[in-house]
Amino acid sequence: MKIMITGFNPFNGEKVNPAQEVLKFLPDTIRGHRLVKLNVETSFEKAASQVYDALLAEMPDYCINIGQAGGRSGITPEKIAINWVDASIADNTNYQPKGQKIVAKGMDGYFTQLPINAIVKNIRNSGLPAKVSNTAGTYVCNYLFYKVQYWRNTEFPNLKGGFIHIPYLPSQVLQSNQPSMSLNDITNAMMIMLKTVIDYDGLKDITSLYD
Amino acid sequence: MKIMITGFNPFNGEKVNPAQEVLKFLPDTIRGHRLVKLNVETSFEKAASQVYDALLAEMPDYCINIGQAGGRSGITPEKIAINWVDASIADNTNYQPKGQKIVAKGMDGYFTQLPINAIVKNIRNSGLPAKVSNTAGTYVCNYLFYKVQYWRNTEFPNLKGGFIHIPYLPSQVLQSNQPSMSLNDITNAMMIMLKTVIDYDGLKDITSLYD
Amino acid sequence: MKIMITGFNPFNGEKVNPAQEVLKFLPDTIRGHRLVKLNVETSFEKAASQVYDALLAEMPDYCINIGQAGGRSGITPEKIAINWVDASIADNTNYQPKGQKIVAKGMDGYFTQLPINAIVKNIRNSGLPAKVSNTAGTYVCNYLFYKVQYWRNTEFPNLKGGFIHIPYLPSQVLQSNQPSMSLNDITNAMMIMLKTVIDYDGLKDITSLYD
Amino acid sequence: MKIMITGFNPFNGEKVNPAQEVLKFLPDTIRGHRLVKLNVETSFEKAASQVYDALLAEMPDYCINIGQAGGRSGITPEKIAINWVDASIADNTNYQPKGQKIVAKGMDGYFTQLPINAIVKNIRNSGLPAKVSNTAGTYVCNYLFYKVQYWRNTEFPNLKGGFIHIPYLPSQVLQSNQPSMSLNDITNAMMIMLKTVIDYDGLKDITSLYD
């Protein structure tokens, strides 16, 4: 099996993005399965084309996108991608789409194919906070998540996709009263997430499984 | 035109529900359009059957559900209903469904038919905080919102639906450091919401309109 | 009896200050006691000199300062003024003192002479949120509060002083997810506060009284 | 030089207290100075007597108390101890004092003798969030902090004291949306705090120093 995992580069004036930092600490194989790591630009169009090209080149079984969710205190796997973009700030190419669909004729929303309840349970069991999120926002994160789901429904029928939001690193919130998580803990949580994806691969109705 | 508007009764130990309180202060007609007000039980099944029966009896043009979103500081019209229920507390009939679809073969998500960006803009212009929300949660609120959308797609093709979350009343947060909004302000915001719905009725692509 | 009550003008880019707005709606007498209302500049030195001059001119029994505490959800009477200033932003005269004592030889802290527990209880009984605060910050609010307490200990032995922080108005948080309170509710809370001060005047150990 | 450092045991239903956990990872000497570690009960009277006895037995130069501040996202050295106790929950001996002075004739407040601005600066420079706090609350933490300050002023004139609040551990907030900090990061921050205390020992006006 092959798992592609992506991480965005820093945006909105930040010097680091925990999503890109954590990729550096993940192995190349997990339990014999290959892990393909991809850095993507925090840009609506660039991220989409980078991931689309990589999907074509690698034909992975899973495409898991990691993104920073400033203000969240734990790991939050996303339940649904929605067909909507409404950017409150410009992306890294200075593009700021407001209130529009991502795909004109696309479905309103697509559920993830990841076993997110099991992921949350296993991360908590390791002593780290986690919670299912029901919104990935309306910025680049949700945009990429939706695009992957749309491609799955139109071009890559065997692909399974999902999005994992992670907190700020401590160094990003030195003076701000915002929650954070250490890079070491985020890395451990991502390893648990990946092992859970592997363990649940092939099971039916995985999104409703808690055990 | 006929607009049905519903409000839940108190739940989770609360003595009031702002959604039900605000209904008492809304008029029976707005700009010549009839407003049908309906109190519903904070119960997955009862709320659904109460609203379904009322839709059959009244055949309204709009079905707008109002619900309390404890912890939110402003009026938050919801963007999307999702096909998922996962209750962290039991409802008023002691029913607590965990991790399952609402409708087995239903779509993952349905966008609202309300002009939510315009509603947010108009409420802000009146001096009150408002923001589009991209998640109505996975409790009774989202359940009812999803059911109405599902019925629209299967039985009531001319129905338009939407969900508006409102903050706690001040009396519900006496000691809790949670945000609240006065009943008078909530009522004013609901009047603006209703007038906006009427003003935008019949316009195309209203969900993307900011003006 | 004579009660002086002060409110700051807008600062930090705000167009209004709820403290100054609420003064407009307070009466000139309460239960036969005179209420002297004073607008003060959000400036360390100007506010202090304005209040000092007014204390000399009016010789009030109480000096109650009202200030905006952005981010707080209820009315928060302050317990203690501390001998420290550390401004994170400049005041309205572009003065920004960092890490220093307010009065070189002053006490580290002074407790208020207001019956703050009773005020909190009475405001809650009226259906509005309130809580004792143990820090008035290290900006202009605490500075003025401390100065009044210092003057009480050196020049005005019969003066009683206190500081009441109030939330943002709804119009100040249109898009910000911050809590707010309507001007009407703040006004009602300030009336309850003033009546409680009058009711408890002359009682001993009022700061520890809950009833 | 001898530094005594204390940590409370778990309270309010928690299974761990980060203050007690971090003590386990601190060394016995830092730069040649002895570190005396003391576990104390989360009890108003027991903690006070445990620390008083240890002060008599050890005669340390510094007494630094560490406590858990649930809900805070960074390390928060406290500025001031106040002469007030008002417990919202019972302590570990089921004692819950309400609204009263700690020492009948004591000062209203005492500033810490720790270089808290320098501590905050140095912790931030290491990449971890920190902020001066101006309230240690009115529970056991402030009580112990005040008692030590009072003893300093009456019996131990050479003693210097201070209180450091630290966040929850990740394992304490698995499902709660509250911020946390890893034990490894808390330990590093406490090492920086101790080294800063040592570096600034003997300097004048340390509380106002930022550099």
Helix/strand/pairing category of chain A: alpha/beta
- In CATH terms, what is the fold-level topology of chain A? Aminopeptidase
Using only C-alpha atoms, the radius of gyration of chain A works out to 16 Å
Number of strand elements of chain A? 8
Oligomer: homotetramer
**Greatest interface:** A-B, 26 and 26 residues
The biggest beta sheet of chain A is recorded as: 6 strands, mixed
Order of strands across the widest beta sheet of chain A? 2-3-1-4-8-5
Our measurement of the CA-to-CA distance between the termini of chain A, rounded to an integer number of angstroms, reads 23 Å
CATH architecture tag of chain A: 3-Layer(aba) Sandwich
> What would you call the shape of chain A?
globular
Low-confidence stretches of chain A: none
| Run of helices and strands of chain A | EHEEHEEEEHHEH
In terms of DSSP E residues, the strand content of chain A is 15-25%
Q: Superfamily at the CATH H level of chain A?
A: Peptidase C15, pyroglutamyl peptidase I-like
CATH class (first level) name of chain A: Alpha Beta
How many helical elements of chain A? 5
Tally of distinct domains of chain A: 1
